[in-house]
Amino acid sequence: MPTDQLILIVVLVAVFLVVGAGAAFLLRGRKTPPGTYTTTRDANDPAPGGVAVDERPGAPAGPPAPTADAGAGPDTLVEDESLGLEEVPVEVPAPVLGRLARLRARLVRSNNALGKGLLALLSRDDIDEDVWDEIEETLLLADLGTEPALELVDALRERVKIEGHRDPERVRLLLREELLKLVDPSMDRELVSHRQDGRPSIVMVVGVNGVGKTTTIGKLARVFVAEDKDVLLGAADTFRAAAAEQLSTWGARVGVPTVKSDVDGADPASVAFEAVRAGIEQEVDVVMIDTAGRLQNKVGLMDELGKIKRVIEKQASVDEVLLVLDATTGQNGLNQARVFSDVVKVTGIVLTKLDGTAKGGIVVAIQRQLGVPVKLIGLGEGPDDLAPFDPEAFVDALLD
Ligand SMILES: Nc1nc2c(ncn2[C@@H]2O[C@H](COP(=O)(O)OP(=O)(O)OP(=O)(O)O)[C@@H](O)[C@H]2O)c(=O)[nH]1
């Protein structure tokens, strides 16, 4: 074979080997399973900066985030040796669909005295004035509120008079219908959690101390991740030192980054501003801002809340202001709700700790007083113990 042909063959073989090796290297990356947060940052996006720290779980700011193995189950270890990063466990949250069905037993356990009590009273042979008084008392004890309780008693009196009673199935049906009317299925309970006008949805979470704000954000982040959304958290609770840590731990569990201040007692409005800026830059779907718990009668702190919202709105309007209320505090929650709503227009209520109280009637009282729907309910301390509020499922659980 002539030398020039031999050289040509050697060159072709070498080219083939180089191209093959390159292709194998490029194809080596693992596919990211749905729901796993990787990165929303484009290659040409600026790196985060300013007072707040963008904490992307398992990765320092800058390089791309680690990916998880395809088909990941709970507690999947995420690793990317090529970046020399530590292994970070990322959980796969439970699907949102049918959550209330899964958590129904908890609602039934704590609230069935209400439903059972009403059913027993209404099924009596003779419903005299004493029985109606007892029915009213049962409703008031469940925190339904005076006006709705009287309304319900009147409606039941009327229907029992016309339709008769005693047949347990019939009694159950009419009670169900009347309770459902009070809970009001016509209210819009959808959470705004999608990008619109080229920017993320901004969700602010407010409430008094210890009601479950941070926990709720952590649980909600999981809900959004389960829906395959990109989420970013902002730790504007700079009052309690451990709060930012608590929030970023929740985020890290599902691979969601947290923007927080590295300065103790930093201005919460500026942390919120940075978080929203990062969310816009990184093109996420939802930014959730945690705020410090504050008593509704502390004027300075309530003013601060108004300021946080105004500062956020320099960049993007706030789509949701979720007021978290602890269901076990009963009517006291109503006073809180009114004051909070005056300062930052509340768009939805999250009622936590419904697993630990027989006062499910508070749902009706709150919605009536504020005209704001209960959008989510907390039914336990577990990471997936938060469910969208479904009026029918709720009333059914009361009557179980
Ligand atoms: N049983 C039950 N406990 C809950 C629920 N939601 C939150 N908690 C618990 O309530 C406690 C307070 O929750 P946090 O999220 O720290 O409350 P917070 O409102 O952020 O507190 P501050 O930042 O101090 O105002 C925690 O122990 C939570 O586990 C719920 O739906 N059911």
Compute the number of helices. Answer: 12
List the secondary-structure elements in sequence, H or E: HEEEHHHHEHEHEHEHEHEHEEH
- Sheet with the most strands: spatial strand order: 1-6-5-7-4-8-9-10-11
Total number of beta strands: 11
Using only CA atoms, what is the Rg? 27 Å
Q: What is the CATH C level class of the domain at 201-390, in words?
A: Alpha Beta
Q: What would you call the shape? A: globular
Question: What would you say the CATH architecture of the domain at 201-390 is?
Answer: 3-Layer(aba) Sandwich
CATH superfamily of the domain at 201-390: P-loop containing nucleotide triphosphate hydrolases
Strand content: 5-15%
Instruction: Indicate the mean pLDDT.
Output: 79
Key structural traits:
Rossmann fold, 11 strands, two-stranded antiparallel ribbon, 9-stranded mixed sheet, Four Helix Bundle (Hemerythrin (Met), subunit A), 12 helices, about 400 residues, globular
Provide an overview of this structure.
With 400 residues, this protein is α/β, with parallel strands linked by helices. Among the domains are: 99-183, SRP54, nucleotide-binding domain (Four Helix Bundle (Hemerythrin (Met), subunit A), Up-down Bundle), CATH 1.20.120; 201-390, Rossmann fold (3-Layer(aba) Sandwich). It has helices at residues 3-27, 99-122, 129-141, 146-163, 168-183, 213-226, 241-253, 268-281, 299-312, 332-343, 362-370, 391-398, and strands spanning 52-55, 76-78, 88-90, 201-206, 231-236, 258-261, 286-291, 320-326, 348-352, 374-378, 386-388. The strands form two sheets. A nine-stranded mixed sheet has the order 1-6-5-7-4-8-9-10-11, sandwiched between helices. A two-stranded antiparallel ribbon has the order 2-3. The chain is globular, with a radius of gyration of 27 Å. Residues 19-51 and 58-85 have low confidence and may be disordered. It binds guanosine-5'-triphosphate (GTP). Guanosine-5'-triphosphate is lined by residues 207, 209-215, 237, 240, 243, 293, 352-353, 355-356, 378-381, 385.
